[in-house]
Amino acid sequence: MIIIKLWLLFLIIGGITIDMKCGLEIHVQLKTDSKLFCDCSTNYKEAPANTNICPVCLNQPGTKPFPTNEKALKNALTIALMLNCKIDKDITYFMRKHYDYPDLPSGYQRTSVPIGYEGDLNGIKIREIHMEEDPGQFKPDFGIVDFNRSGIPLVEIVTEPDMHSPEEAREFLKELIRVLNYSECARGEGTMRADVNISLEGGNRAEIKNINSIKGAYKSLKFEMIRQKNLIKRGVEVKQETRAFLESQMITVAMRTKEDADDYRFIPDPDLPPIKVQKKQLEEVSETIPEAPHNKVKRFIEEYDIDEESAKTLTSELKLANAYEIVVKSIDPKFAAMWMRDELKRVLTYNKLDFKESEISAENIIELLNLLNDKKITTKVGQRIIEKMPKNKNSPKEIAEELGLIGVVEKDEVLDTAKKTISENEAAVSDYKKGKETSLNFLVGQVMKLTRGKADPGETVKILKELIDN
Ligand SMILES: [Zn+2]
């Protein structure tokens, strides 16, 4: 028995001492109306397959790319600045990265040299940021390639291997997606594709491809960490290789031994002239970049005197943060923070909606909080109204009227209802007399039910106690 315990201890300690390093390469589509090198629409999801296409984005022989989409460059610069990157190389140009796959008839993908480098996000260093064109979508199940996606601008964000656990990588990705959402320059997690590299002390670096979500990144790292640890423990070499993540099974499998940059035969694209990033253009972008979410958290704490947890919840979404700043112009910031953090987030989570997808406006939140402040409704009624708000365009007052909830009941009515409750629930009353406190909660609940939540809970407790004790 002791031997088994010692062995377990060795395993646990052994687990802690193996250091893990993880770096990420994240691709996200940039928000533009047209593609990177042609005028085709970027609306690829709703359009029938192969309808948003032209000879350029089909990579047909003899076609030449249009000049680089300026909006895409501006968006990439904004993201680079929000991630504190240096942008001092004023000439940017595109390289051809060669590889063969059915989604890429030209045999090369255009990818820019870094437009920003040496940035950071919450202590994780950003090595570089560059632009790329998306390839088409090969659909082996249907035997087709859909080129609607081909040529959509992407930004690729490459971190240093600064993360030391799957949890840390997950937190970083969440914060990065938040920054991208705030930037309004990218299309968010839905378009994310990430490659993850991971190495353990004493082993080689493995790269995992095919990751499409934050959860996928976390799960694949977790799996890979355990796989590599077991190999190292058994004295087997961890190979340097590229592995694929199979999301359906939450495992990684070997794809190929790692290629070097040489394998891609990078050459500057002779069809595209270099782009000069003008100083004026950079100044314009700097002046209009939105406040990054981590900075907003700090400001909310100082300006509105709310706790960090509330500030983080309220800034989890740009539209929610904006609504809060409108609400606090006429409502006490702490009171508003409490309702928007607890009740509003609760009903949004329940309805699986983001604030921006819901019917709730800042004006409606103000109206609801005013009804509560003026004691026209109780907390309980407030909660019932807010539950209806995500999917109801009507104002809180109108919702209260629809549900017959407006008004707080008078003391006499509470007294009558309490008497009725006591006479109908003898068992609970006698339990309470014997010292069972929960029985009182039950009686309060009955009164609330009969008054449809319009009785004041504090008042109800007082009245019930008086009636029972006398
Ligand atoms: Zn096109």
From TrEMBL:
<keyword id="KW-0808">Transferase</keyword>
<dbReference type="GO" id="GO:0016740">
    <property type="term" value="F:transferase activity"/>
</dbReference>
<dbReference type="GO" id="GO:0050566">
    <property type="term" value="F:asparaginyl-tRNA synthase (glutamine-hydrolyzing) activity"/>
</dbReference>
<dbReference type="GO" id="GO:0050567">
    <property type="term" value="F:glutaminyl-tRNA synthase (glutamine-hydrolyzing) activity"/>
</dbReference>
<dbReference type="Pfam" id="PF02934">
    <property type="entry name" value="GatB_N"/>
</dbReference>
<protein>
    <recommendedName>
        <fullName>Aspartyl/glutamyl-tRNA(Asn/Gln) amidotransferase subunit B</fullName>
        <ecNumber>6.3.5.-</ecNumber>
    </recommendedName>
</protein>
<dbReference type="GO" id="GO:0006412">
    <property type="term" value="P:translation"/>
</dbReference>
<dbReference type="InterPro" id="IPR018027">
    <property type="entry name" value="Asn/Gln_amidotransferase"/>
</dbReference>
<dbReference type="GO" id="GO:0070681">
    <property type="term" value="P:glutaminyl-tRNAGln biosynthesis via transamidation"/>
</dbReference>
<dbReference type="InterPro" id="IPR023168">
    <property type="entry name" value="GatB_Yqey_C_2"/>
</dbReference>
<keyword id="KW-0648">Protein biosynthesis</keyword>
<dbReference type="Pfam" id="PF02637">
    <property type="entry name" value="GatB_Yqey"/>
</dbReference>
<dbReference type="InterPro" id="IPR014746">
    <property type="entry name" value="Gln_synth/guanido_kin_cat_dom"/>
</dbReference>
<comment type="function">
    <text>Allows the formation of correctly charged Asn-tRNA(Asn) or Gln-tRNA(Gln) through the transamidation of misacylated Asp-tRNA(Asn) or Glu-tRNA(Gln) in organisms which lack either or both of asparaginyl-tRNA or glutaminyl-tRNA synthetases. The reaction takes place in the presence of glutamine and ATP through an activated phospho-Asp-tRNA(Asn) or phospho-Glu-tRNA(Gln).</text>
</comment>
<keyword id="KW-0067">ATP-binding</keyword>
<comment type="subunit">
    <text>Heterotrimer of A, B and C subunits.</text>
</comment>
<dbReference type="InterPro" id="IPR004413">
    <property type="entry name" value="GatB"/>
</dbReference>
<dbReference type="GO" id="GO:0005524">
    <property type="term" value="F:ATP binding"/>
</dbReference>
<dbReference type="InterPro" id="IPR017958">
    <property type="entry name" value="Gln-tRNA_amidoTrfase_suB_CS"/>
</dbReference>
<comment type="similarity">
    <text>Belongs to the GatB/GatE family. GatB subfamily.</text>
</comment>
<keyword id="KW-0436">Ligase</keyword>
<keyword id="KW-0547">Nucleotide-binding</keyword>
<dbReference type="InterPro" id="IPR003789">
    <property type="entry name" value="Asn/Gln_tRNA_amidoTrase-B-like"/>
</dbReference>
<feature type="domain" description="Asn/Gln amidotransferase">
    <location>
        <begin position="322"/>
        <end position="468"/>
    </location>
</feature>
<dbReference type="InterPro" id="IPR006075">
    <property type="entry name" value="Asn/Gln-tRNA_Trfase_suB/E_cat"/>
</dbReference>
<dbReference type="InterPro" id="IPR042114">
    <property type="entry name" value="GatB_C_1"/>
</dbReference>
<dbReference type="InterPro" id="IPR017959">
    <property type="entry name" value="Asn/Gln-tRNA_amidoTrfase_suB/E"/>
</dbReference>
